[in-house]
Amino acid sequence: MSEDARRELAEIKTQLTALMDRVRELERRIALESRSGAQSSPSPQRSTEPPLRVPPPSGSPQAQGHEIQSLERALGGKVALYTGISLIFLAMAFFLGWAWTRLTPEGRLALGYLGGFALLGLGSAARSRSESWFVDGLLGAGLATLYLTHWAGWERYQLFSFALAFGLTTATTLLGVGLALWQRSETMAVVATIGGFAAPVWLRGDGSQNAPLNFFGYLAALNAGMLAVAAWREWRWQQTTCLIATVILLWGWSLTGYKTEFRLLTLGFISLYYVLFALAFLLPDLLRRRPTNEGSLILFVVSSLLYLPVGYGLSREAWGDYPGAFLALAGLVYLAASWGYRYTGDLPAAVGFFTLGLVCTVGAVAVQFQPHVQVVLYSLGASGLVTMGLRFHSRLYYGFGIALTLAAAVMLWSVVSEPIRAPYVLLNEHGVAWLASLLAGSITLHVLYHDILTQPSAAVDSLFPRQALAIMGAFGVVIGLAWFSAEQTLYAFELNGFKNAPAAHLLVSLEWTLLGTALLVGGVQQAIRALRLMGLGMLALTTSKLFLYDLGFLQMPYRAFSFAGLGLALIGVAWLYSRLERAQADNPRGGQASPS
Questions:
Q1: Residue 524 and residue 417 share a domain
Q2: What is the pLDDT of residues 362-410, one digit of tens each?
Q3: 515 and 458 within one domain
């Protein structure tokens, strides 16, 4: 705790003590008056107690004095300490340079160890007399000096064997962890963690390239110990240091020491590291039966996003024809964990696991299947998520359903942008993608329509209004139906050797006319203005096609048939609207059965 916080806490305690004394005095006076039974109230007496201390305003001279005093303590305390430690390091470096020709290597190492243990002794002696930041500074400087001396004995003077240097480094790391637990100092734990992870860097002469098992085993043991301490004390910065240091060491090793024959060994140990990090981040809160800490959850998600692409890259060859199996299995595990956390009431963790599960599932589909199959799976999955979100009133499922709908739309566009290759009608790449999208969109629209009727307002509307989603979905379904019918009709004639045949374009116009009429009739029967407007829009599009394209392309008798069919359809539209106006006139208060 900083000095400013301690001072503010002491002032608060003083004010609370004074307030409690005033309350006790008032209670004593009330009790005396009730026992005396006096007829007249006693004359008021002026309290002799000192007034309560009120913190001075921020702009008063007293407050400015406090700020100056805090700045003075910071400059005279932490800044002076860290500057002094830096000067000691520089002095040691200068001294070692000066003593290069005057002391033997053994003497230089002896001075290094003497200085390191002297700093540790001073820090330990000051533990009960000084602030924690001062003790941490001395102890951290002592540990850093010992690590530096180990490095000099191994790398600079070649006086230590690999085993001796490794043993001394391990002992110093254990000493640092012990001092951190004794001092209850996360700063000391971070220093010890950095020293432990730095050992493979300066001990690179043995092992990391020719014996990766030793390197991986050391990282596993070090992470297990450090993460256990960090999880016990709930030291987030130490956990973060372990994660960053592990990533840096593995990345550096992959650049210089990775070989193809190490693939499975690397995958196994990286998976082990990931399990250790996951347990350290999530298990403490789970055992204490409390919601997962936000910082721990962020670290878990970050470590997952680092592990998944590496694990996929190392394992895809082992799966052969099923490269997406790794991501699919990971997705199932995450989704199962999300369901379990949802039952425990830990919503943040459930959201995190569900997000990872959905990302893995989408990734597995992307690497395993062709684009048109991806559209099928994404569309149906999005419809299912939206339905679950409405059914369980979950913004989580609803929101991810909308996101997956956008992904399906992007994949659909990429599919229909490519030419059709399969010599089948409807069952080609475009047809399968369109059918799945239209089916999923129709299911979503049906669920949205009934949900809006049963409850006009819902919690999911704060994320994305259901009415807006329904309108966008209906518009997309209508456009999709028009595109799908025209494309597959023309392709069917092309497969039979009648490319750009007049009958094909006549049939497309007829299909669009029927689609617009069906939408209009449905909108009238269900009293849904949006459907009626889309039906009119479809008929307007057909009319535009008739005059702008068919008129110059079609010959007799196809031109007459096209104009006659659309004319009859428009007459039927007029008749429907006349009936609709008559019904509204006869029942002016009837209203419509659904929102317009």
A1: no
A2: 999 999 999 999 999 999 999 999 999 998 888 888 999 999 999 999 9
A3: no
Instruction: State whether 109 and 140 are in the same domain.
Output: yes
| Residues 6 or more apart in contact with residue 297 via CB below 8 angstroms | 281, 282, 348, 349, 352
Both 427 and 494 in one domain: the answer is yes
Cβ burial 98-114 (10 Å sphere, 16+ → b, else e): eeeeeeeeeebbebbbe
Pick the last residue of a domain from 499, 527, 548.
499
Kindly report, residue by residue over 282-307, the tens digit of the pLDDT: 999 988 888 999 899 999 999 999 99
d(CA 521, CA 505): 24
pTM: 0.68
Do residues 448 and 470 touch, judged by C-beta distance below 8 A? yes
Instruction: Count up the domains in the chain and report the number.
Output: 3
Picking from 455, 484, 499, the residue at the C-terminal end of a domain is: 499
Residue 526 lies in a domain: yes
∠ Cα 543 545 549 (to 5°): 135
Of the candidates 518, 508, 497, 490, which has an alpha carbon nearest to the alpha carbon of residue 561?
508
Q: Does any domain span residue 26?
A: no
> Which residues, other chains included, contact 308 with Cβ-Cβ below 8 Å and sequence gap of 6+?
327, 330, 356, 359, 360, 363
Shared domain for 482 and 542, answered yes or no, is: no
Print burial letters for 319-356: b (CB count within 10 Å at least 16), e (below 16).
Answer: eeeebbbbbbebbeebbebbeebbeeebeebbbbbbbb
At what angle are helices 212-233 and 236-256 packed, to 10 degrees?
170
Residues in the chain: 596
- For residue 369, the one-letter residue type is F
Amino acid code (one letter) for 158: Q
Q: Are residues 523 and 578 in the same domain?
A: yes
For residue 130, tell me if it sits in a domain.
Answer: yes
Q: Do 377 and 417 lie in a common domain?
A: yes
Distance, CA of 541 to CA of 400 (rounded, Å): 34
Q: What is residue 20's predicted lDDT score, i.e. its pLDDT?
A: 78
Instruction: Compute CA distances 220 → 108, 181, 228, 275, whole Å.
Output: 34, 21, 12, 11
- Give the separation between CA 115 and CA 137, rounded to whole angstroms: 14
Q: Encoding tokens for residue 264?
A: 């499975």
Task: Tell me: do 412 and 523 sit in the same domain.
Answer: no
Residue 325 falls within a domain, yes or no?
A: no
Query: For the stretch 154-184, what's the b/e string if a residue is b when 16 or more beta carbons lie within 10 angstroms of its beta carbon?
Result: beeeeebeeeebbebbbebbebbbebbeebe
**Cα–Cα distance between 506 and 556 in angstroms, integer?**
11
Q: What is the mean pLDDT of residues 247-252?
A: 93
- Look at residue 385 and give its three-state secondary structure: helix
* Cβ 392 vs Cβ 362: under 8 Å: no
Contact 139, 188 (CB under 8 A): yes
Give residue 25's pLDDT: 78
Enclosing domain of residue 580:
503-587
| Residue tagged 């000099």 (tokens) | 152
Structure tokens at 458: 């819902």
